[in-house]
Specification:
228 residues, single chain, 8% strand, 3-stranded antiparallel sheet, mainly alpha
Length: 228
């Protein structure tokens, strides 16, 4: 089994072995195939993702070379498998990835389980599930990988998934009355995103639920003045 990681640095592991993929363009190529896993990715899309609007004349041949190297690396890591991870389909490629092999898929699965726990009334189970999901996402997705074009915009937008789960975890912790630990956490989040209305609302609720009504009113006034 191969483990792919994109929630932070791009990494590939086969058991205890970390596969070495150091070439910048080859890493970008793998990132695109992972973001569009189990889908046909035309070679023109790969060229755009690697070089943007103005790729070199040799771009198609370079992509084929990167694919060949990446395919060989993955095949060697799975020597007992009769099927190659990367399939050629016409003038494009498909990278086959199982759900439990990609950290993003595991993140989404844990978050979904946490939501089910929340809906069933298990707030503690939901909080634990959201924390487990967030533990898989230590930093900005693919922060060490340079992408171009539309796929770069898509990759940059992945952070919204993490922010949504983080907010859901905070909501559940508010239900559980964990205000003492939430207040400094929310203040720290607001320091990096001062115009986030939902975070302001969460801070006001946390202060109010902790019995600090004057502080909650002050936080409301500050937030209203800032947002106006």
């Amino acid at each position: 089994m191969i483990e792919f990681k994109i929630l932070g640095r791009l990494e590939v592991r086969a058991g205890e072995q970390q596969l070495s993929i150091t070439a910048t363009k080859q890493r970008a190529l793998l990132a695109v195939l992972l973001l569009r896993r189990n889908q046909l990715v035309p070679i023109d899309d790969l060229v755009e993702a690697l070089w943007g609007e103005y790729g070199p004349h040799s771009a198609h041949n370079l992509v084929r070379t990167y694919i060949w190297r990446l395919r060989r690396l993955l095949n060697d890591a799975e020597a007992d498998s009769a099927q190659s991870r990367i399939a050629t389909c016409g003038d494009g490629y498909v990278l086959s990835v199982l759900p439990d092999e990609l950290d993003l898929e595991r993140f989404l699965g844990l978050a979904a389980d946490a939501r089910e726990a929340r809906e069933s009334g298990d707030a503690r189970g939901a909080a634990s599930g959201f924390r487990a999901a967030l533990a898989l996402w230590p930093g900005e997705a693919l922060h060490d990988t340079l992408l171009e074009g539309g796929i770069a915009v898509y990759a940059g937008g992945l952070g919204e998934l993490r922010r949504t789960v983080l907010e859901e975890r905070i909501e559940v912790d508010l239900q559980l009355g964990r205000t003492a630990e939430l207040i400094p956490e929310i203040r720290a989040l607001l320091a990096t995103d001062p115009l986030h209305e939902k975070l302001h609302a969460m801070l006001i609720r946390a202060l109010y639920l902790s019995g600090r009504r004057a502080a909650a009113l002050s936080a409301y006034s500050d937030a209203r003045a800032l947002l106006v």
